[in-house]
Amino acid sequence: MSEARARSTKRQSSVNRLSLVPLTIAAAMTLVSPAWSQQEAPPSATDQVAAPEAKEKESRHESERHEQKPKRFDWSFAGAFGRYDQAQLRRGFKVYKEVCSSCHSIKMLAFRNLSQPGGPEFPEKEVEALAASYKIKDGPNQAGEYFDRPGRPSDRFPPPFANEQAARAALAGNYPPDMSVLAKARGYSRGFPLFLIDALPGFSYQEHGVDYIASLMEGYEDPPPDVKLPEGQFYDPYMPGRRIGMPPPLSDGVVTYDDGAPQTIDQYAKDVSAFMMWVAEPHLESRKRVGLGVVAFLLVFVGLLYFTKRRIWSGVPH
Amino acid sequence: MEGHSQYTPKSGFARWLERRLPILSFMHDSFVSYPTPKNLNYMWVFGAILSFMLVAQIVTGVVLAMHYTPETTLAFDSVEKIMRDVNWGTILRYAHANGASMFFLAVYLHIFRGMYYGSYKDPREVLWILGVVIFMLMMATGFLGYVLPWGQMSFWAATVITNLFSAIPVVGTAITTWLLGGYSVDNPTLNRFYALHYLVPFIIVAIVALHVWALHVTGQNNPSGVEVKDVKKETVPFTPYATMKDAVGIAAFLVVYAWLTFFVPNYLGHPDNYIEANPLVTPPHIVPEWYFLPFYAILRAIPNKLLGVTALFASILITAALPWLDTSKVKSAVYRPLFRKEFWIFVAVCIGLGYLGAQPAEGAYLWFARLLSAYYFLHFLVILPIIGKVEKPEPVPESIDASILRGETSHV
Are A128 and A116 in contact (CB under 8 A)? Predict the structure, then answer.
């Protein structure tokens, strides 16, 4: 269930995959019977002697190792009546294009999506011009050769790196995750009993992923004095393990907004997170719109059926 | 219960067909004139809801299959393509994924209803066992379907579950290799899981037909647990009475289903399944879908793989033995004061196991899981047989009509 969301936040970007190589079967066996495999080693005698002081230090360490729960933001697309904020999506796209896209691919997003209803809805002419500014590999042509051509609205955004190895080679071993569905691929659990109300009308909370991403973006801090970070790692309390391989991507004023919105890290973080939510769920608006109609119809229908049923049964003692 | 058909063909064509294949009278007897006890409450609508969900899953599933690609490098992207580029694709996929959850919700309520009112007892043992078979096929289908989007949880769930078979002594590893079509979960696994995910629902349809057939031979149980004595007085025809009540139930159920599908479609899913399968990265916690959690908790509670797997399968199969484990002559819990309490404890134990199945199997969680797993089996093997012997049932009404006169039924 949603409790499962709990331990979901992944660390693809910061952990070298090769260090995690488990034999598939061996890992599965471990997972099937964690009872005997995941128990921690019993504390040694010295641990027990080194009384409260050490304990306290350890627990502080523990809390520093665990990530903080993300902040909750006020998203325009939350709730049954939620809609994307078009201006925000446009700003978020600008942040993506000027900052994120140098490392992160967004392979499921086509240029044409940018002008479709329920998104940033850029004018088609602008989208055509934007697509044409990208070089797209195509081919083979009649001479049997591959060639570059200007992009068309039907093309998808070309990735910044040709493949995973190229990304790792360029980024000190890091592989930035694709951003197409990232907003749905991240999450956290609010724990029992809050996770139960996350599903309820009026209380519904589905924005775990964007909240996490926005918190992470604006959460970079200097590490506490007793935390030593390895080379190329940064301190972010929202990241599992609190360390992240991505250098702080945003700084005040790094992207110029032309709609007067504040050019701050917090604003950028929110805008690009909203944009990522739209990329992950481009039909959110039509889904919710149709849903309102469906649920409203069903409620009336249930009522009508119920009274019909009562009428039919009225002559039968039951 | 079934006498001569009350169906009289009205048109010339109907008469012509009736002499050659009496399908019209069969339909009429099964869904129109079929006598249903008039004291059924709303817990009896889940049969109709389940039939509806089976059809809904097949219809959405067949359309999804037209757009899905069962190949490891394309599967994940093809699902996202459905979400983005297929007309109504988002809604189709969310309806199918949440449909599985709603299907299981309904089947659990249906099963608990059967347990509460003793619906498995003489003469409905075969009906009950067919139900257990359907439930197991549903679990297989649900698991196979969960693998298809080829996300991280899909991949690792497939790895964990197929690995269970390797616990079988001597031939276990060979069986696992045979199931996987290789030494680990890979393209051959995805291909066969897809084929089976498409196949098994139609086997379910066939068993459901047997289930309904058996039901129509014995007739429905009812909240009083007293068999129908006078069909004329104590039953009403299926149509319009039961059809209308079922319609209310289905529509109300659809409100919940629609809410999930349209407004919180990922609530019951796991974020990791939006990360493409990667055999080199194990998720920190592998968690099955919610409807498997109680059984997952039982599996992990036992610190020995073979015994754990045995307990897992036993926990499901043991329900088939209920007609013989429950020694009470009285069917309905309405007249069984001790059993009534035990029933709710058992429900709480199942929910508790579900919660623990989602937690890491360590520390206090593990000990609670062991406690509740033990209780789960004790309920069937010890408590039920003993309660039936020692309990003093409250007076059972002579007939359904007598029960209605006592005011024991609901009027909604």
Answer: no
How far apart, in Å, are the Cα atoms of B247 and each of A304, B29, B117, B251? 11, 19, 22, 6
Q: How far is A96 from chain B (nearest CA, A)?
A: 20
Helix B89-116, helix B75-85: angle, nearest 10: 100
Distance of alpha carbon B113 from alpha carbon B46, whole angstroms: 9
Residue to mutate among A1, A116, A302, A314, with most B CBs inside 10 A, is: A1
Q: Cβ A29–B261 below 8 Å, yes or no?
A: no
**Residues of chain B with C-beta less than 8 angstroms from the C-beta of A193:** none
Provide the CATH topology of domain A86-109+157-293. Cytochrome Bc1 Complex; Chain D, domain 2 (1.10.760)
What are the tens digits of pLDDT across the range A183-197?
999 999 888 889 999
Residue B17 counted as domain residue: no
Domain count, chain B: 1
Nearest CA in chain B to A197: B267
* CATH number where B253 lies: 1.20.810.10
Q: Across chain B, what does the average pLDDT equal?
A: 95
- Residue A312 touches chain B, beta carbons under 8 Å: yes
Residue located via tokens 């978020």? A92
Cα B29 from Cα B209, distance rounded (Å): 15
In this complex, do B283 and A10 lie within 8 Å of one another by their Cβ atoms? yes
Gyration radius from chain B CA atoms: 23
What is the domain extent for residue B278?
A: 33-288
Q: What is the ipTM of this complex?
A: 0.93
Residues 6+ apart with CB under 8 A from A50: none
Judged by CB atoms closer than 8 Å, whether chains meet at B282 and A31 is answered as yes
B272 to A317: CB separation less than 8 angstroms, yes or no: no
Q: How confident is the model at residue A61 (pLDDT cuts 50, 70, 90)?
A: low
pLDDT band at A43 (very low <50, low <70, confident <90, very high): very low
Please indicate, yes or no, whether the overall pTM of this predicted structure exceeds 0.80: yes
CB neighbour list of residue B20: distance below 8 Å, 6 or more residues apart: none
Angle between helices B293-301 and B305-317 (to 10 degrees): 140
C-alpha A15/C-alpha B409 separation (Å) is: 62
pLDDT over 70 for what percent of chain B?
Answer: 98
Contacts of B398 by beta carbon, 8 Å cutoff, 6+ apart: B226
